[in-house]
Amino acid sequence: MRLGIQAAFQEANRNGGVHGRELRLESLNDSYEADFAFSNTRDLIEKAGVFALIGAVGTPTARAATPQAHVAGVPYIAPFTGASFLRDPYLDNVLNLRASYYQETDEMVARLTEDLGITRVAVLYQDDSYGRDGLEGVLLALQRRDMQPVVSWHYPRNTMAVKAATLRIAEANPEAVIMVGAYAPVARAIELLRRDIDSVFMTVSFVGSDALAEELGTAGEGVYVTQVVPLPQDEDIPVVARYHAALAGYDPDAEPGFVSLEGYLAGRLAIAGLQACGRELTRKCFLDGAHNAGTIDIDGFRLRYERADDNQGSDTVFLTVIGADGKYHQVDRLPGAKQ
Fold it and tell me: Which of 41, 124, 240, 292 is the most buried (most CB within 10 A)?
């Protein structure tokens, strides 16, 4: 995420910055722990005096950080999470870039039910606010179709302790398993479950797609991941071509990926807001500008904040699958779908 933001900022700085100002990113590591996220946010606002916060990673950490940012009126830009609470109209300082977990999980359930007629769905989720938000998204999507999961089970956050959950899920023999977790435990769960059941496996974008594919290796073929940005290797897409150039300019050895592409888009969103304000920059101008801009077109990737209380720019969800080549491929329907 930081890599992509830095690539966007350096790209702008090479062209003279924004209205003559250079962009600079201050980064602190919260280790995906809420306590550190709280103290880091306080320090960035009170000690570093940052103009805005951008690209924060995770739902539990965002829950700790956003109240401070909201009270201080500091823009909270493009957090790397699809958590529903960040879409609350009350959080008028938040500018989400991506589609929500509810939208990602609804796309999964839609494809499973409409394409394959699947009715037996299980859920494995991380036992924290991220995992529970994803679980709620699945439950809502199933309820809209008069369904419920055959089983749902969790594993402890920041661990690989998935065996108990996979045993419960295997006993229910689901046709599909939706997973809301981090790449390493999700990969381990898929490995264990494939020993006992023949199911469709799906997970959300926050998993860390590239890391998941690497962790699974040859066992990754056929695993589906919903995405909120286009394929990062498809340079036929204008914004992806621009991202490749910016990434190469910042770090020639960096490999393009879903997360750094999202970071690049986050950086470009921030730049668009700063440009719109002109030289007389204020946080209010920045936030009002995003909500009054109509469509923000980032080389074909379009964001739109419809109203003053709308804080989500994109509603687009892309379904991808890991192929036999270990790479992600975008699909519109699941194989075997009824025509």
Answer: 124
